[in-house]
Amino acid sequence: MEQQKKDFARMLLRIKAVKLSPRQPFTWASGWKSPIYCDNRKVNSFPDVRSYVKLELTHLVLSLYPEAEAIAGVATGAIAQGALVADQLNLPYAYVRPKPKDHGMGNQIEGELHPGMKVVVVEDLISTGGSSLKAVEALRGAGLEVIGMVASHTYGFKVAEDAFKEAGVALHTLTDYDHIIAEAASSGYVSSDDLDTLAAWRKDPAGWQ
Prior knowledge:
By secondary structure, this protein is α/β, with parallel strands linked by helices.
């Protein structure tokens, strides 16, 4: 598992999925400002990395949740990854919107899953955990049993760890912030100034400016 985290972190750096912008920080959905952004959507454009993610997330589901009866992806970032995993496992698939559509059928869950199904949620990235757990809430509200979540990457914030614990959702990821930064530092992907900025941000991500 440790080698996997290093390997995937190295892949994300290779395809330049990790972006640094200390002077013009990114704004996350949570409202937090951040000098770093991990764009896992880029994975879909690189066949070797896309295949790696598909197979490794599939292995996580098989090893941890062999009883899974369906896969649900979180829109929009994990729609593709969730579909790839579901296809590999030959399981039913749906994806979950942040909120119900305001037109048409008004669906929040797109696809056909039945109440009582044991579902594994696939996510691309975990920051505060808010959007991921909203998807879990929607699935549970539809009568589905969420047995766990697998994701490509997590920032490992305590606020997210606490939120997942409170929601009773087990989370397993292919890599995490610490491994990405370690690989970025050892490869020269980030400068010493960048590392200082990232360290300051990590201490207080909610209050960092």
